[in-house]
Amino acid sequence: MLYRDSGVDIERADDVKKKIAQLVKSTFNKNTLTEIGAFGGAFKFGDKILVSSTDGIGTKVILARMMNEFEGLGHDIVNHCVDDILTLGALPLFFLDYYAGHTIDNKVLLPFIKGATDACRENGVVLIGGETAQLPDLYKEGDFDIAGFIVGYVEGRIIDGKGIKSGDKVYGLPSSGLHTNGYTLARKVCFEIKGFTPDTYIQELEESIGEALLKPHVSYLKFIKPHISKIKGLAHITGGGFEGNISRVLPEDVDCVIDTGTWEVPVLFKLLQEWGDIPDREMYRTFNMGIGMVVIGHRVEGSIEIGEIVEGKGRVKLEGLRDS
Amino acid sequence: MLYRDSGVDIERADDVKKKIAQLVKSTFNKNTLTEIGAFGGAFKFGDKILVSSTDGIGTKVILARMMNEFEGLGHDIVNHCVDDILTLGALPLFFLDYYAGHTIDNKVLLPFIKGATDACRENGVVLIGGETAQLPDLYKEGDFDIAGFIVGYVEGRIIDGKGIKSGDKVYGLPSSGLHTNGYTLARKVCFEIKGFTPDTYIQELEESIGEALLKPHVSYLKFIKPHISKIKGLAHITGGGFEGNISRVLPEDVDCVIDTGTWEVPVLFKLLQEWGDIPDREMYRTFNMGIGMVVIGHRVEGSIEIGEIVEGKGRVKLEGLRDS
Predict the structure, then answer these.
(1) Looking at chain B from residue 2 to 21, which residues have their Cβ under 8 Å from any Cβ of chain A?
(2) Residue B34: its chain A contacts at CB < 8 A?
(3) Same domain for B260 and B286?
């Protein structure tokens, strides 16, 4: 099975991408500091730099509904956004949430807000605003979608990967699970192919498949913050995996070589691959495979060395895949 | 017909509101400058004040789909967000969009981005980021939702309504139509009760009902900006209408008395009321009735006097309604 078989096609036609980039660039002014495609947008404001980003948490909301567990989604959306701007070297200031659904069910909204505010406090972020939209004609009964918006600032310099050189080591920080990507595929594999329910107990995981899948996204703020001035490049491993995300910060004269044998891929990913008969390359393009944040050029606490930078052409190479 | 008959219930239980407010306040720090319930959140950043807001455009997206016209939605979401932070006296800096749908249809996405980037340039706003999420299991085929997020800054003081006094005049700036609120009710009235299609020509409007309903949200930036230091209070008339929105900036020792006979309610609203047999009070609570922005304490160009501030208890009173 491939990700596109589950109904999601990550690729977009190059000419459409180009047209969108052209339109977006038409709004840029002298204060715009980042190029299109970065993990966040950087904006010069007086003598400071603001960095912002928006994201959703995909169909993890559907899994949460199946399990009637919504607090984790609050952690997911906040931590995902914190990690996105962190990759530019930004520390978070404030967050806003957008929650839209068929009905505003307080049994969903309250635990979600509880989780989001807990995560905000953990990250030192103020929940400064939000929108709750009841759209019965747009969402099916019980359905809802969540998006988050974050603003942070860069104290010293933007981490943009420009200093990355051949010989730099590449480190990985562990993820807690799927974080917020690949859920459409994972649900197909677990609940359609395998016919599980969320509370099917999986011996190898020592917990139910639902519990394993619903684990909240990790915030890497506390790991990265103490070292922020020394790190050359950061990649948040989300949709697109290692190749799609590391390439966003890689200079054009180097390659990043990841040795996939350097860390133990968590059992959950191995099981999903086996159950769905998913090729290695597809797994590493869809899921984080146990590494939620890649750090280039400086070792941070809790990380393991997973690869290195060599002379090249801006490519990300995954070594040790069975189908490469 | 009442708005809640169309499936949208604007009210939320007070205890839930209180619990959410408590959770949200638990994230506040010394830099948080606004209370919950303002049109935007204000955040002290160094010696500057940042203001941000997030919003959607409701089921206007469904109307746009019926008409296969998506450029206006880009103007809607940008202008709505610009107006929201404008009410605090903030000038916009940058914007991010969130677009989620069953499929990412370029025939929808491209015109939407075209409209959004046009509106960004018109408002001097940089489109600094965005997220496009393909969620086939969450949205029905053809369905999508749009949210926007804006950050601006206050140059002088936040406009918070605190200086509003008995005797201040209240002015209104004209809207272009429904802007981005009341579409669930309007669609029910036009397409279910009346059985129209979007291209049904309406003599009184001198255009089709679809064209009349789809008119983009007005940005009030150019009207307000030259007078920003003199204005005492601003209310963006969105969901909740005059009462729900003016009350957000009104001190507790005054009332705002709006004389609904001072402006000509546009024909579109009159027709919707007649077709749907909607009581006056419900009309003024759901729709902007021709006034998109209320300005208190200073006349701005293009505005008309629609009421005044008197001693009172923080209430908004609508005079001249037939069912009050």
Answers:
(1) 7-9, 12-13, 16, 19-20
(2) 128
(3) yes
Number of domains in chain A: 2
- What's CA B69's distance to the chain center, in Å? 21
CA distances for A131 relative to A146, B52, B181, angstroms: 10, 12, 14
CA angle, B85 then B87 then B91, to 5°? 50
Across the A:B interface, residue pairs with CB atoms under 8 Å apart total: 215
Residue from the list A41, A42, A128 with its beta carbon closest to the beta carbon of B32: A128
Residues B308 and B296: their CA atoms lie apart, in Å, by 8
Same domain, A63 and A187: no
Tell me which residue of B257, B247, B252 sits closest to B305, measured CA to CA.
Answer: B257
Query: Is A117–B153 a contact, with Cβ atoms under 8 angstroms apart?
Result: no
Task: Judge if B212 and B116 occupy the same domain.
Answer: no
Residue A164 lies in a domain: no
My answer on whether A62 and A92 are in the same domain is: yes
**Which of A:26-85 have CB within 8 Å of B?**
26-29, 31-32, 34, 40-43, 45-46, 48, 50, 52-56, 58-59, 61-62
Subunit contact B13:A126, Cβ cutoff 8 A: no
For residue B137, the enclosing domain spans 31-154
CA proximity to B266, closest of B308, B218, B231, B194: B218
ipTM above 0.85, yes or no: yes
Q: Which pTM was predicted?
A: 0.94
Are A200 and A208 spatial neighbours (Cβ–Cβ below 8 Å)?
A: yes
* DSSP assignment of B113-163: HHHHHHHHHHHT-EEEEEEEEE-TTTS-TT-EEEEEEEEEEESS----STT
- In sequence order, which ranges of chain A are alpha helices (DSSP H)? 14-25, 60-67, 71-86, 106-123, 183-187, 209-214, 221-224, 241-246, 267-276, 280-286
pLDDT string in tens for chain A (324-residue length): 777 777 666 555 678 888 999 999 999 999 999 877 778 899 999 999 999 999 999 899 999 999 999 999 999 999 999 999 999 999 999 999 999 999 889 999 999 999 999 999 999 999 999 999 888 888 888 899 999 999 999 988 999 999 999 999 999 999 999 999 999 999 999 999 999 999 999 999 999 999 999 999 999 999 999 999 999 999 999 989 999 999 999 999 999 999 999 999 999 999 999 999 999 999 999 999 999 999 999 999 999 999 999 999 999 999 999 875
Question: Are A117 and B23 in contact (CB < 8 Å)?
Answer: yes
Residue A115 phi, psi dihedral angles, 5° rounding = -65, -45
